[in-house]
Specification:
Length: 250
């Protein structure tokens, strides 16, 4: 059992959350128990996650996509139901958005590009003036092999837009809903851009920019960072941890 404040301080420090501008309210969003015996980790705040965390005996939940996004919201409807459930069961909720995207060791994008065994990794792609992605070099790996590697790593089936070279030497990664950052990959003359989801403009951007794109799903592309944070937390504190995977194909 540990103090909730000690866990939060550890997360805030490791992720440098106070220094990163973000629409998300990073850190504690809903106050729960002062002491923590078990922490459940998940990708996104939802009533299904909260219910399964409560059954699992969680005192604290940590997610990538939280409940608070920079504006006041009435405690009604689905939002009110979620907050009510947490407070009724004295379960805390913490969330880390951009800090978990951009972290150089346990961030989603760092985990994804390391899964490809890329070299010469460096920051890439800005979102609201915050650099959150990574790019690196590969030794001319086939697009098919890169796709299979990422599908196995994320346990998902990828969507591929193959308008670039068949042998990948330069790759950039920005997880989640970052299809709109594809032009930054084209400007960098990358062979491949890896993200979570695509929308209609991306297809012609790829054709005209002569670039490949792999979309792993918003949810599946952002499991690896929260799981890495869970492992780091378990190594630091004498507390039980569990990742709850809520099926989400999007």
């Amino acid at each position: 059992m540990v103090k909730c404040d000690d866990v939060l301080q550890f997360w805030n420090t490791q992720l440098n959350s106070a220094a990163i501008p973000d629409a998300s309210r990073n850190g504690l969003q809903v106050q729960g128990a002062e002491t923590v015996r078990k922490i459940v980790f998940g990708v996104s705040a939802s009533l299904e996650l909260f219910r399964r965390a409560q059954v699992a005996g969680a005192d604290l939940i940590c997610v990538h996509h939280g409940l608070l996004w920079g504006h006041e919201q009435p405690l009604t409807g689905l939002f009110g139901q979620r907050v009510r459930f947490l407070m009724q069961h004295n379960i805390g909720l913490a969330a880390y958005h951009l800090p978990l995207d951009k972290h150089p060791k346990i961030g989603h994008n760092a985990c994804l590009i390391r899964a490809l065994h890329a070299t010469q990794i460096k920051p890439f792609a800005t979102y609201h003036d915050v650099t959150i992605g990574y790019e690196g070099k590969l030794p001319g790996v086939s697009l098919e092999k890169v796709t299979k590697t990422l599908e196995q790593f994320c346990h998902t089936q990828a969507q591929v837009v193959p308008f670039g070279p068949q042998k990948i030497k330069r790759v950039g990664v920005v997880s989640g809903g970052a299809y709109s950052m594809l032009p930054q990959a084209i400007d960098r003359q990358l062979d491949l851009y890896v993200t979570g989801i695509l929308d209609e403009p991306a297809y012609e951007w790829c054709r005209e920019g002569k670039i490949n794109c792999i979309a792993l799903g918003h949810y599946h592309s952002e499991k690896c960072g929260i799981e890495a944070l869970m492992k780091m937390t378990a190594q630091k504190f004498a507390v039980k941890t569990q990742f709850i995977d809520i099926t989400n194909p999007l």
